[in-house]
Amino acid sequence: MAQAVAHRAEETEKTALITGSEAIAVACKLADVDVITAYPIRPYDTVMQYVAKLVANGEFDCEYIVAESEHSQFEIVKHASAVGARVFSGSSGVGWMYAFEALTVTPALRIPMVVMVGNRALDDPGAFGVEHNDALAVRDLGWQLVWVDSAQEALDTALIAYRVAEDRRVFLPCAISCDGAFLTHSQGLVKIPSQDKVDAFLPPYQRGDLLLHPDNPITIAPQANEDWLMEIRRQTAAGMERSTAVIREAYAEFEQIFGRKYGNPFFEEYATEDADVVLVGMGTLSTPVKVAIRQMRREGKKVGFVRVRWFRPFAAEELARTLGRFSAVGVIDRDFSLGSPHLGGVLATEVRAAMYLATSQPPVLGFICGLGGREVTVPDVRKMSDIIREAAEGHPQPPTQWIGLRE
Amino acid sequence: MDTTATVETQPGVKLDPFKGVKKLPLEEFFTSGHRTCQGCESALVMKMMAKAAGPRTIVLGSTGCMYVANTTYYSTSWVIPWMHTQLGSSGSAAMGSAAGLKAQMRKGKMKKEPINVIAFCGDGGGADMGLSAISAALTHPDYNLLILMYDNESYANTDIQLSGSTPYGAHTTFSPPGATKRIMHHRWKKNMAGMLAAGHPTCRYVATMCMSYGLQGMNCVRKALSIGGPTFIHSLDPCPKGWDYDPILSHELGELAVATGIWPLYEVKDGVVTLYGKTKQLAEGQSPRLPVREYLLKQGRFAHFREEDIEYFQKKVDEMWERWLIPGVIPFVKDVEDERISA
């Protein structure tokens, strides 16, 4: 033990070239996670390969369990969390859907697990590439959902996620979405914080009077039926409502301790100051969008970008206020919501709902793009920008268009 | 800590077998507040299981009768900590709880002490949906846990639908005898304990029990909790609602299930099979094996049986006793011993 302390004290911040998956594995180690469950499915599984190596090399002390299905993966950590352990798990695509029952009960039980979703298209037909429908499927259930676009942000957000999820005002799970391949398998330079700083930022997980233990012999999740279920749902909803402020607090303290600034936690603004139209999207499509914007800016086209990080809780008022500044908005969905209003994507539908009460309501156009891991290209982004510019100039456009689709 | 060790099971509790009914402690850990049916043997299993395990125990209960009837909000019958788990999750619930405790104790985040972890499931949750997770749990020698399957031979809570553990021919709401098909359920009951014992060679303890022999059942629970690693117990629980009989007969039906040889009582401890109680007497010829008719015809679920159905049932039970490699446990024979092949 004394040796371990001495070892920790020597540690300082290091920089490493690692993938988004490895960054999250490192965050798990720094967060001193107690129980981790793995089950193979691409592309998320890379995080577990890194965890397994850390455990095998004696660098990380946790119960590392290879489960026999995703359902068991998430049930095992759910129960480990109920007895007070800090837990981590993850999945992708249909694996996440296989765990759906466990994902449903986890927020309802106020289990603050943190997981990684390596976003992947749902079968069938098979595709390894990114789509956001997997993580989005739990959007109504009490999961906090955040999308990141770099390995550094993945590591930092994992630490923030533990702090927010385990805050007793919240006590809800958090899924960190990393686009399959584009982030799970892509390396970036990552500053790995020292253990001291992480310890200063992240207090121990305390389940308090909800701990399942012989010293606290409670009955958890009895049959409540119509007598009480509605009141219990309301409590869960209140946890999600409080999450917004807790996220703000966590990012502020993160900046103070680690010195890295994320600005507004809920969404990142890029080249928006003088923009007249903006694109909105989540995840790694930020890279082609930013490249295209730089090109267009050189041509005098004032296009900006808003990258939504936290999808749950959804910063509706703040986002609506921001988007109201522009003369047209284009939402890029790397997902679909078949039969939804205006036949759009999930994010576009949410953004439109957020704009409903706003005083300034520019046209909001939806684009379905980059499904099944197809690249969102710079020409795609330019095309979408042209369409929203048309709308801004008073030429009505269809509410939803599929971009980059072969005819 | 020796980090190179492949298996690091923490010492479990040491619970000595009860020496007799009069030696049982009076203290209850599963008490008033439940609303199970009159004559419910599964409720008795819960009560005796909790008594055998004692106060330093966490119980996880998967969906089923023993969830729905026992834990009405504000009137839980559990004195010890109890948590619901999903229908197919008894294996995962046990493993997660045991792993969570173990990690925290090893890392100094929780006081070190042996805590029993018991997950129970019904036959639907165990023999059907939860089989995969139970199987996985039994391959993990690292965790001390007991999975107890209370088998009332149907999804009794949801309206008596057949499960993979429902006996041949039984009338359930999903297998009603009709004008054209008398036998709607023509599958033979799964041999859960035998399958799990045979399929998980590192699992140190698998047993069958029946609450008609309560003391023996409680001692099975104590052995399972004390031996170390994951363990499994399969309990046959007569169910007045699902089996359609007068609740006063619950105890007698359990005895008949054993006396007719339909329900063999045995333990597989560190790879050694031991028949116990009445089953041992049957095997050693000290007591005659009663005809299955006496068991079947006391239950409304077999009221539609004709003579040929009873004969078929008897033939299958005879086969188990006369032809299986180990009666009640291993349902096949070696080819050299099979007269059909050697003839």
**What proportion strand of chain B?**
5-15%
Tally the helices of chain B: what do you get?
13
Note the gap between the termini of chain B.
Answer: 60 Å
Structural class of chain A: alpha/beta
Q: At the first level of CATH, what is the class of the largest domain in chain A?
A: Alpha Beta
Looking at this structure, what is the CATH superfamily of chain B?
Thiamin diphosphate (ThDP)-binding fold, Pyr/PP domains
Note the topology.
The complex is a heterodimer of chains A (407) and B (343).
Chain A: H1 2-10, E1 14-19, H2 20-30, E2 35-38, H3 46-56, E3 63-66, H4 70-82, E4 87-91, H5 93-98, H6 100-108, E5 114-119, H7 133-136, E6 144-147, H8 151-165, E7 174-179, E8 187-192, H9 195-201, E9 219-220, H10 225-258, E10 267-270, E11 277-281, H11 286-298, E12 303-308, E13 310-312, H12 316-323, E14 328-333, H13 346-355, E15 364-369, H14 378-392, E16 400-403
Helix pairs in contact in A: 2-3, 2-8, 4-6, 8-10, 9-10, 11-14, 12-13
Chain B: H1 41-53, E1 57-62, H2 65-68, E2 82-85, H3 90-106, E3 116-122, H4 123-129, H5 131-138, E4 145-151, H6 192-199, E5 205-210, H7 214-226, E6 230-236, H8 240-243, H9 250-259, E7 266-269, E8 272-275, H10 277-283, H11 293-296, H12 307-322, H13 339-342
Parallel strand pairs in B: 1-2, 1-3, 3-4, 4-6, 5-6
Antiparallel strand pairs in B: 5-7, 7-8
Helix pairs in contact in B: 1-7, 3-5
Describe this structure in words.
The complex is a heterodimer of chains A (about 400) and B (about 350). With about 400 residues, chain A is of the alpha/beta class. Chain A folds into two domains: about 1-260, Thiamin diphosphate (ThDP)-binding fold, Pyr/PP domains (Rossmann fold), CATH 3.40.50; about 270-405, Rossmann fold, CATH 3.40.50. Chain A is built from 14 helices and 16 strands. The N and C termini of chain A lie far apart (about 65 Å). The model of chain A is unreliable at about 1-5 (pLDDT under 50). Chain B is built from 13 helices and eight strands. Chain B has helices at about 40-55, 65-70, 90-105, 125-130, 130-140, 190-200, 215-225, 240-245, 250-260, 275-285, 295, 305-320, 340; strands at about 55-60, 80-85, 115-120, 145-150, 205-210, 230-235, 265-270, 270-275. Chain B has one domain: Thiamin diphosphate (ThDP)-binding fold, Pyr/PP domains (Rossmann fold, 3-Layer(aba) Sandwich), CATH 3.40.50.970. Chain B is an alpha/beta fold and about 350 residues long. The relative contact order of chain B is 0.13. Chain B has an eight-stranded mixed β-sheet, with helices on both faces. In chain B, helix 1 (about 40-55) crosses helix 7 (about 215-225) and helix 3 (about 90-105) packs parallel to helix 5. The chains are: A alpha/beta (about 400), B alpha/beta (about 350).
